[in-house]
Structures are given as C-alpha cells and as structure tokens.
Amino acid sequence: MTTKLQRRPGAPFAFRPLYAPILPEFDEMEKGMRRMFGDFFGTDLPTQPVGWTPAVEINETPDNIVIVAELPGMTEKDVQLEFADDTLTLWGEKLEERKENGDKKYHLYERSYGAFRRSFTFPRTVNAEKIAAEFKNGVLTITLPKTAQAKTKGRLIPIVKN
C-alpha cells in the first residue's frame, strides 16, 4: 500500500505528512511550527488549524442554504454552532480514543482527532432567527433559510420606445 501526500479540499497548506501516524513527536513539531509561523506572519497568512478539518458540503435551493458536515465518531454534544455578523461558525473537539497497553500496540493510525473550527460567511439573505441544525449518524445538517427578500424573483421591465 502506497500513501501519497494529498491536499485536503478547502484547506491551504493542509498536507498530512507520511510520518504523522508513526511518529507523534513529528506531529507535535508540525503543530508547533504552524503556531510559531502563524504568529510571526500575523493573521493574513492562511494556516491550517491544529487538529483536523471536517469535510463540508454547501448547497443552495430557492428557499435555503444547506451545510452538511461529516463528523464521524462525534455527537451533538461535541459540536457548537454560532451565527453572528452573517458568519456561521462551527467548532468542536473529537477526543482521541487510542490507548496502548501491554497487549495492544498500534502499527498504523490514520484517524484524526483534536479541535476544529470552520467559519462560513453568507450574504445578508439568511434569516438568522430560523436557522436549524440536525445531527444524525455522524452527519450535521444545518439549514439556513433565506429571507423573503432573497426569495423574490426578478421581473422583466418593459422598454418603451420614444
């Protein structure tokens, strides 16, 4: 089996090194470097959050904007949502379950754990009072209804000849 470095969609500089599952010391060093350079270059530098990034899908219908986030191994108690200033923020933490003892040793460990934070900014067409979220089988579905003004269709304007 060959493992390749792959860029995670939507996450700049989000490469998972080959050594991370085998040598946790390198993973800790990588996190420290991200913290150090993120502070050194300021907030304008796109950085990957320490931890992991859940996969997200966003779609739109005439009435709603829908966000679907994959959060395997988590429950609704592990996740928080906030909508402020036209920005939806999703954050939480997936606790590590791996425990080695005398009888059990891991040879490969590719599951991701840790804290995450994702933010999405929307146009002022979202009705913040009616946002709903549902968590089922490790999938969080957030429905952001559009305002009545956003749902109005355009109309043809006749042009009169002078």
How would you portray this structure in words?
This protein is an alpha+beta fold. The protein has two domains: 1-48, no CATH class; 51-149, Immunoglobulin-like. It has helices at residues 24-41, 148-151; strands spanning 56-60, 64-70, 79-84, 87-94, 114-121, 132-136, 139-145. The strands form two sheets. It has a four-stranded antiparallel beta sheet, with no helix packed on it. The protein has a three-stranded antiparallel beta sheet with strand order 3-4-5, with no helix packed on it. The longest helix has 18 residues, at 24-41. The chain is elongated. Mean pLDDT is 77; it is low at 1-20 and 42-49.
Order of helices and strands: HEEEEEEEH
Low-pLDDT segments, ≥5 res: 1-20, 42-49
Tertiary shape: elongated
CATH architecture heading of the largest domain: Sandwich
Task: Please give the order of strands in the largest beta sheet.
Answer: 1-2-7-6
